[in-house]
Amino acid sequence: MSTQDITAEKFNETITDNEIVLVDFWAEWCGPCKAFAPTFSASSDKHPDVVHAKVDTEAEPGLAQAAEIQAIPTLMAFKKGHMVFRHSGMLPAKDLDAVISQIKDFDIEAAIASQGEADQA
């Protein structure tokens, strides 16, 4: 599966309608973003069960601001609509694979239930 560009209009739908979504916030002028792009694209081929989305921060400044993007590239990961990972800067392919494995193994329902119990305490 290839990467897909998403806009502010499609952002919430993308992260809530898919089990796992990785979002790469980038810009055309950003050297590290361009260097990370092949790694991100290769990951989308290696993990077709994970949506790999890209947000152009220049084209979507409101979305970048809402996501509190202060440096690019920034990678966010969502599982069942909940952000479970955030990292600014490039990731080597092996580290990106490790993050994806951890997200796949992460029990989001237990984490949500645990948070709910903590909120009531």
From TrEMBL:
GO (cellular component) term, any one: cytosol
Residues covered by the Thioredoxin domain: 1-105
Positions of the catalytic residues: C30 (nucleophile), C33 (nucleophile)
GO MF term set: protein-disulfide reductase activity
InterPro entries on file: Thioredoxin, Thioredoxin-like_sf, Thioredoxin_CS, Thioredoxin_domain
Marked site positions, Deprotonates C-terminal active site Cys: D24
Keywords from the UniProt entry: Disulfide bond, Electron transport, Redox-active center, Transport
Disulfide bonds: C30-C33
Highest taxon of the lineage: Bacteria
PROSITE patterns to which the protein is assigned, alphabetical: THIOREDOXIN_1, THIOREDOXIN_2
Annotated site, Contributes to redox potential value, chain positions: G31, P32
Annotated CDD domains: TRX_family (cd02947)
Family designation: Belongs to the thioredoxin family.
Function: Participates in various redox reactions through the reversible oxidation of its active center dithiol to a disulfide and catalyzes dithiol-disulfide exchange reactions.
Entries under PANTHER family matching the protein: GEO12009P1, THIOREDOXIN 2
Protein's name in the database: Thioredoxin
Name of the encoding gene: trx_1
